[in-house]
């Protein structure tokens, strides 16, 4: 499993944990939560991991888009504290954040009609989700390099926790020996 696949699994795991925590904390206390277009009538039957893998498979976004989408979700929840991520709104928030991220980060991206099919919603709903998501974030789309690196470092740390490197019998990590790789690379350059 590569870094990107692990990042997708970690992001879906973190978001699932947040949704479950908020489900338990707020339960049926809908009076403390603001109802929004992101809130579904029922919990989607597809897991968040499968949903994110579906988005990855069909959206063809650059890998950085998914980290930026994660940042956008964090910004959205900070600016909209009465719309906590839960199992009723996570899927819609996720598809909206990836769509907005792809449009902002990538030179080529699919249109809203395509994303609506990937997300299992109507095009009209996708358009409204995008608009509400942008307003909910206050149109704060720019992500500085330092912020991106902070989130990426956090996700890489979570990858190490969830997918620890394998240990060899003599307790050495099963990574390539950098000295061997460098010398091989230098020999190839010398030829």
Report on this structure.
With 191 residues, this protein is mainly α. Helices cover 64% and strands 0% of the residues. It has eight helices and no strands. It is globular, with a radius of gyration of 19 Å. The C terminus is likely disordered.
What is this structure's SSE topology?
Layout: H1 3-26, H2 48-59, H3 63-79, H4 90-105, H5 112-119, H6 123-136, H7 145-162, H8 178-190
- Gross morphology is globular
How far is it from the N-terminal to the C-terminal residue, by CA? 33 Å
Please describe the biggest sheet, giving its number of strands, its sense, and whether it closes into a barrel: none
Mean pLDDT: 82
The DSSP helix count reads 8
Radius of gyration, taken over Cα atoms and rounded to an integer in Å? 19 Å
Strand segment count:
0
Portion of residues within helices: 55-70%
Computed structural class: mainly alpha
Proportion in β-strands: under 5%
Question: What is the string of SSEs from the N terminus onward?
Answer: HHHHHHHH
Poorly predicted runs: 174-191
Summarize the structure.
By secondary structure, this protein is an all-alpha fold.
Key terms for this structure?
191 residues; mainly alpha; 8 helices; 64% helix; disordered C terminus
């Amino acid at each position: 499993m590569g870094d990107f696949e692990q990042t997708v699994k970690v992001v879906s795991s973190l978001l699932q944990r947040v949704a479950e925590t908020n489900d338990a904390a707020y339960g049926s206390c809908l009076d403390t939560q603001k109802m929004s277009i992101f809130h579904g009538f029922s919990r989607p039957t597809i897991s968040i991991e499968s949903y994110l893998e579906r988005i990855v498979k069909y959206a063809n976004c650059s890998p950085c888009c998914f980290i930026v989408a994660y940042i956008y979700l964090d910004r959205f929840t900070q600016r909209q504290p009465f719309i906590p991520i839960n199992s009723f709104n996570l899927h819609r928030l996720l598809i909206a954040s990836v769509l907005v991220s792809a449009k902002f980060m990538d030179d080529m991206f699919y249109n809203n009609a395509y994303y609506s099919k990937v997300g299992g919603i109507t095009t009209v709903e996708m358009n409204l989700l995008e608009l509400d998501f942008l307003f909910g974030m206050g149109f704060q789309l720019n992500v500085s390099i330092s912020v991106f690196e902070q989130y990426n470092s956090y996700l890489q740390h979570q990858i190490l926790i969830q997918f620890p490197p394998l240990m060899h019998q003599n307790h050495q990590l099963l990574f390539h020996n950098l000295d061997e790789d460098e010398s091989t690379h230098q020999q190839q350059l010398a030829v």
